Amino acid sequence: MPESKHLASNNMFHIILFGPPGSGKGTQSEKLIAEYGLIHLSTGNLLRSEIEQKTALGMEAKSVMDKGQLVPDEVVIGMISSALDANPDAKGFLFDGFPRTVAQAEALDKLLKLKNGEIGVFLALQVSEEELVKRLLGRGLTSGRSDDTNESVIRARIAEYNAKTSVVADYYKQFDKVVDIHGEGSIDEIFAALQKEIDARMK
Ligand code: B4P
Question: Which of 13, 55, 129, 177 is the Cys-Cys partner for 92 at CB 3.0 to 4.6 Å?
């Protein structure tokens, strides 16, 4: 793959794509990694891969995810730590669905510091609850994801986000990294808004 025009220098640039379940993190991540040549780290995808392979970790995670709850911090922090070690030559990482708690955010900062890196920008997608439920039920019709088919599980995921995850934005606000992005509209419009913020910060 040709090196991305945006990451021609040796400076690493790491992005957190943040938002409630169904806000478009996975959707926009696909476009962002293609545009900027970043390594995509989605804890949701990593967990679903463990479930598919029927590992012990995957089976434990599935029972938590099917209730709409968060997987224990030590499990996801361990997965991210291994993924960072497995990509020593990365020009930058796009974190999608991680960190979801303040403990995960603190652990990520420590892991990046060990590599002389830090988060460049924290992009927070803003989407109303009714739109989130509509999107996830829509995805549930075709994705085969057991956490997308039941509205009460979807609402539990949103409640878990409001209780434990939304405060992660406050954590990054103290470092002046947070940019809110309107997450309703066409996928291309939202991508353009994300790109504008990244390009303004990526040197
Ligand atoms: P994730 O895999 O992270 O998934 P998600 O939050 O459900 O969805 P995402 O935000 O990526 O989906 P998207 O909007 O792109 O998490 C799943 C579970 O794993 C969690 O509930 C938790 O149990 C566990 N987990 C993951 N990470 C964890 C962590 N760090 N700590 C603890 N537990 C963790 O897509 C949704 C739908 O919207 C799609 O159908 C898409 O096509 C549609 N869509 C996207 N953009 C749209 C637009 N602009 N307009 C209309 N529809 C749109």
Answer: 13
Number of residues assigned to the chain: 203
Closest CA to 106 of 167, 155, 49, 63: 167
Per-residue pLDDT at 116 = 83
For 128-153, write each residue's pLDDT tens digit.
999 999 999 999 999 989 999 999 99
Atom of ligand 1 nearest to the CA of 19: 10
Q: What is the pTM of this model?
A: 0.92
Mutation test residue for ligand 1: of 104, 135, 136, the one with most atoms within 8 Å of CB: 135
For residue 69, which atom of ligand 1 is closest to its CA?
23
**Measured distance CA(104)–CA(108) in Å, rounded:** 6
140 lines ligand 1 (CB under 6 A): no
